[in-house]
Amino acid sequence: MASSSSSSSSNMKRYHVFPSFHGPDVRRTFLSHLHNRFSSYGITVFKDQEMERGHTIGHELVQAIRESRVSVVLLSKNYATSSWCLDELVEILKCKESPGHFVLTVFYDIDPSHVRKQSGGFGEAFERTCERKTEEVKQRWKKALTDVAEIAGEHSINWNDEGEMIEKIVISVSSRLNVTRSKDFEGMVGMEAHLRKLDSLLCLECDEVKMIGIWGPAGIGKTTIARALYNQLSSDFRLKCFMGNLKGSFRSTMGVDDYDSNLSLQNQLLSKILNQRDMRVHDIGAIKEWLQDQRVLIILDDVDDLEQLEVLAKEPSWFGSGSRIIVTSEDKRILKAHEINDIYPVGFLSKEEALAIFCLSAFKKTSPSDGFEELAKKVAKLCGNLPLGLRLVGSSLRGQTKIEWELQLYTLETCLDIKIEDVLRVGYDKLLKKHQALFLHIACFFNNEDVDHVTSMLAESNLDVKNGLNILVDKSLVHISTDGKIVMHYLLQKLGRQEVVKQSNEPGKRQFLVEAQDVVNVLANGTGTESVIGISFDMSKTGDLVISRRAFERMRNLQFLRVRDPDANVSLCTLDGVEFLPRLEDMEFLPRLRLLNWESYPGTSLPVPFRSEFLVELHMPSSKLEKLWEGIQPLVHLKKCTSLVKFPSSILNLYKLKTLRMWGCKKLQVVPTNTNSTSLEKFDTNHSSRLRSFPDISRNIKNLSIVGPLSVWSHPKRYEEVIGRQLKKVTHVPSSVRKLDLSSSDIETIPEYVRGLLRLQTLIIENCTKIISVEGLPSSLKSLHADNCVSLERVKFPFPIEDPIRELMFSNCLRLNEIARRVIMNRRLAKYVCLPGKQVPAEFTHKATSNSITISPGTFSDASSSRFKACLLLSPIKDNALLHVTCYLRSKEGILINQMNYLSLTSDQPPQIRTEHLFIFRGDLLHQQTKHLEVDMNTTEIVFEFTCSDNHKIVECGVRIFKKEYEKRAKKECWLEDDQCNIRYQTDKAEAVEVSQVENVESTKQTGGFLSGLRKLGLGMKKKTKALL
Questions:
Q1: Considering the domain boundaries, does residue 828 fall inside one?
Q2: N or C: which end of the chain has fewer CB within 10 A?
Q3: DSSP codes joined into one string, 130-170
């Protein structure tokens, strides 16, 4: 046991430096200056001033030597007069043999040879010290002096400036100490990727002063990333400082004016970076005066006020060349206002990363313990993939039983952890009242809704919606998705809903009602008040719903009503009697509604006194409506109307109506004629199966969706989008159509009328299980989506000079023949292609069985005009997963050269990938905005890194590099690689030909005819060519 304890003690390092010296020679001069410089670098030095010195060193001193990482031996004229010093030296050299202990020597006014040979005055002093010592002790000391004199070090006689010598010693020690950086951030989930991306922004090889922003919502991990970055970079900077938790630091002290607050902040920074505890600054220019000639690393964490940046890092000229100032903040506007344009946005974790972080806190490993797998996934989901929540909740569950976990799940579903709430609510509290109100509207009613839709809904409010949304985005309280939806994080949404609950203990006196039980109580008891402006709930969580006759009587300000009924077995019911309604039609209904969204509405019409003048959206799918109302209602604000059964002709005369949806109107057969809603742009009759004809209702309709056996099309006009899954019988479609969706129809070939749609750009034939051949396509087509066409065998494209095809999706088309596969893969300008495949084709000359490829220097002759083509082999997955591929191009040093995203948006439900598939895409090596990067593509290795979302796994990847060259005689682009030109043509039997360097072209008639055609076009060809069918 004693041995184990001793070993453990010796491995613990309490000090950075142990100095061995003769006090009278150096303590008040050289050593005191050395201590000060060590201190300014944050280097901890063992000090023995209070230790009583005897003839032999004691246990405490031996321990200090063993617990130090570096020993600095200061050899001076009288060093050998002290047996204490000589014993220290022996112990130091013993420790030198152990790993992790470094010895540095300083010969202070002494010749190293005198130390090595114990000669001169140094030798005489040594002999006097050895008197009355045993021969064994003397020999031990002699060997120590001889050995230490052989260790490289600094000689004071070689330096004219003692200060410079001290600086070099300190830098040497600092460098040695930082060889092994802190391991606090090693293995931290996702950290390596964050640091790699930040490295390209920092551009450490540049001498200019750079300010970098790290931006993201509270709890996302900005501070952790900043600390890891500080740990990684600190050894490269002599002066560095981490100013943590600045949030609320400005003007936080009552009675202190702005000037004193500014001085206090500057004093904190300078005291930290210069390691001067008692430092005092007297004017705002102090930081510039001290640091304008110094290369510094400063991290300003959690900045929430622009004034903090003005005080601590007003402009780059305050700091010396090569300085890096890194600022973390939840507010992007602060960073932009300070002209910090290099901003790293910290995104939310993937499901896998979130689970790993949660498990590290809950189980101290990256995966769940046996039996806790499903529980861990549920808890991680409830934490919303937010690192702060994952760590706090994980720690609270560590060591708990499964029963205790299940009990905790209910608490997590109903309320926020208090520590998480404290962090999240800071951003909300700093908002203006009107922006807080907008935040609550989104949290309770409009999360994951289209920006345009929310703007329309709130147009008449005083919420300053457009500007307010920008502020919420910049403050990381919401973000706008790629498809234009407002997205608020789950935990922030919960915070907002908790704020509404705090408005009153009585649900009927709150702004929004979203909890099912609260809604049931308010509607059954008629306790709603004028405070209520929105009701949204899911009837599947309530069972039967009883509505009082006076349910809405006092809710005069109700604007938004949304009733969801996803479970067809749950029905709305009413009770007979004085207090309860026998029919919904008899209710005194909602007077100021802007949104009415009621799934499976059980009434045959809306209440008679229904007031519609404020209505912006009417959405009532799968209802029992036979008519909306009697007579004509004013609908001056209506912009979206969905799911009607008896179609009122007055609707089509609305001058603001843009979208009309009639989903599930199973009794609708005829749309009234002779109407003209000039504003109408979208018309959708999805699942209106009895519709037999379609009139000319607007000359401006762009998007038409008809799902039913439509066979009569009167007055075709300027439609741009048509969705009709049973248009097989239609012989004519308006020529203006740009998008045609025939998904899930029983077509076996492409209908004849499609060839004549010369403006058609997108054709969707997903889930057409009977289709065998795709041909007869118009030359204007840019996008073809044929996922799950399981019988498809043949594909043919037209042969225009300018090939317009950009997107080709053939997921799960397993019967494609080889010619069809080649035709699909060889579309010259296709942005991306997806089809079944088992290996990356041979044309991709750079391959790797991973998700990254390194390209050797010299591959790129002209990077600024070069392009690439990449191929990923994806493993099969069981889930319906969105295919979102990101391609990163980086230099070997980590500088980001380009980043490209490829998102396949086809149907509402992405297809399952049942077998291995190939995803092929193209792009430019350099983005227009990155061509100024100082990266020599001819001498630097370039790394292609690929990532996939939603569980897609990359089995293999390949890359092919092209150079761009313009052929004047042909007046068209060719992409050349190694002087080979890929040119496609159409013959009687094949669709595409690749021309490359091979012999015996003349032996084929078709090839000869093809070459003759090329000569007429003016294309010069080499003698060695071959046509590959």
A1: no
A2: N
A3: HTT--HHHHHHHHHHHHHHHTS-EEEGGG-S-HHHHHHHHH
